[in-house]
Amino acid sequence: HPSPQYLVWYLLQKYLAEEVPSGVLQLATTVESISVKQEENLVLVTTSKRDDSASMNRNTKETITISGRVLIGCDGINSIVRKYLLEGQDPELQYHSKMMFRAVLPLDSLPEGVCPPAGTSIGYKGQEPGKLFAFRETAKDIVTITAMARFDDQPIYAAANRCATARKQHLKELFSGYPKNVQIMIDATPDSSILENGVYSIPVVNEWSKGNVVLVGDAAHAMTPGLGQGANQGLEDAIELANQLAPLLVAAADCDGNRSKLEDAIELANQLAPLLVAAADCDGNRSKCTAELPRILKDFWKERIERVKQVHQASASRTAVVNQTTSKDSKSDIGGNDPDFLTRLYNWKPTQHDGIIDSMAT
Fold first, then answer.
1. b or e along 169-179 (b: 16 or more beta carbons within 10 Å of the residue's beta carbon)?
2. Bridge partners of residue 94, in order along the sequence
3. What is the pLDDT of residue 205?
4. Contact 205, 195 (CB under 8 A)
5. Is beta strand 142-150 parallel, antiparallel or unpaired with respect to 195-201?
6. Which residues of the chain, if any, have pLDDT below 70?
7. 117 DSSP assignment
8. What does the pLDDT read at residue 219?
9. What is the pTM of this model?
10. Number of helices (H), then strands (E), in the chain
11. pLDDT score at 286
C-alpha cells in the first residue's frame, strides 16, 4: 500500500479556505441555537460573534439567524449540531490515558542536522510506556512536533487555559531525560506554538442525520490519534457528501431547462454551501429537489459508517497497544486479524454514483 503523505494541518486549512467564496467563511462565531422551519423545509441557525472577555454579557450579544436547505455539522468532538441532532442523548467523551503535545516551528530556527531530511520523521521513546517525542519537516521549511505521554487520570486542569510559558515548561519537564536534539527542539519552539490536550474519542454515532441536518468528521466519529486517521476520515466524509449532493445540484440547475448552469452546478457541488443557491434557482421544482435531501444525507452516512467503525476501532486498539509499550513501533498488528486492512485504508477512493442524476431528473 502507498505510504501516507505529510501535510501540515494549518496549511491544509489555509488551502481549503482559499477555495471558499468570499464572505462565506465566518471566524470567531458561536452557534447559539438550531431550529427547523418545517413548512418551508429550512434549517435556521442563530450565531453570535465570539468574545472571550470576562465582561461580555450573554444577554447583550448581537445575533444573526442564517437559513439554509441543509446544515452540515462538522464542528468537532464537542459538536453543538450533534447535541441538537441526538436530542440530549449525546455520547460521553472517552479518555484514553494520554496527553498529546503538538507544535510548529520554522526550520531555520534549528541548528543544521537536528531535523531529518524532508520525508523522514524521527521519534524517540524512553523507558515509560506510551511516551514519545517525534518531529519532521512537514512542509518546506516548516517543522512539526508530536509528543505524547501517559496520564492515567483525566487531566484535572483545562490545558487550553494553561499559559504558553507554562505549557513549554511542562513539555521540558516531561522530556528532560531525552536526547540533546529533543532539548534543542523544545528550546527552539515558540511558547505560543505549543498545544496540549487530552486524548479523547466518542463512540461512532449510530445515525448521522435527521431531516436536513447531518454530521461529518469528529462530530460523528471522533477517534484517537492511534492511526493518524481522524482528520483523514473527516476529509473522506466531506468528499463523499459532496459527491452525494452533486446530482441534486445538477438536477436543480437543469430542472428549469437552463443547461448553461450545469457546469456551474457541478463546480458548486464541491463547495457544500451553495446547495442553497441551486435549490432556490429550481423555481417550479424546489420541493422535489429539497425533498431528496433527507434521503441523500442518510445514504451518505450509511455508505460510510462501516468503514469508519473499522478505522475507529483499529485506532483505539492501536492507542491501547502503544500506551503499554516501549518497544519499536510495529504496524503488523494494525487491523487485528484482517490482513487487508491497511491496503483498504490507504487505497480508498470516492464512491461512484452513476445514474443518480437520471433517476432524479425523471
1. ebbeebbeebe
2. 201
3. 97
4. no
5. unpaired
6. 1-6, 52-60, 155-161, 249-290, 327-332, 353-362
7. P
8. 97
9. 0.81
10. 12, 11
11. 54
Edge-to-edge strand order for the sheet containing 213-215? 71-73, 213-215, 209-210
- Packed helices 180-188 and 164-174: angle between N→C axes, nearest 10 degrees: 180
Pair 342, 331: CB distance under 8 Å: yes
For residue 116, what is the DSSP state? P
Which residue, chain included where needed, has cell 413548512?
39
How far is Cα of residue 39 from the mean position of the Cα atoms in its chain?
A: 33
**DSSP class of 5:** P
Q: Dihedrals φ, ψ of 124, to 5°?
A: -115, 130
User: Which one-letter amino acid corresponds to residue 240?
Assistant: E
Residue 340 half-sphere exposure toward CB, CA atoms < 13 A = 4
Cα distance between residue 293 and residue 296, in whole Å = 5
Listed residue (129, 109, 123, 300) closest to 214, CA to CA: 300
Q: What is the pLDDT of residues 182-222, one digit of tens each?
A: 999 999 999 999 999 899 999 999 999 999 999 999 999 99
Buried b (16+ CB within 10 A) or exposed e, 44-61: ebebbeeeeeeeeeeeee
β-pairing, 42-49 vs 29-37, is antiparallel
Euclidean distance between the first and final Cα of the chain, in Å? Answer: 42
Longest dimension (CA), the chain: 71
Nearest Cα residue to 71 out of 265, 245, 204: 245
Residue 60 confidence (pLDDT) = 64
Amino acid at 218: D
C-alpha distances in Å from residue 199, one per residue of 151, 191, 226, 319: 10, 21, 10, 10
pLDDT tens string 225-275: 999 899 999 999 999 999 888 777 666 555 544 444 444 544 544 444 444
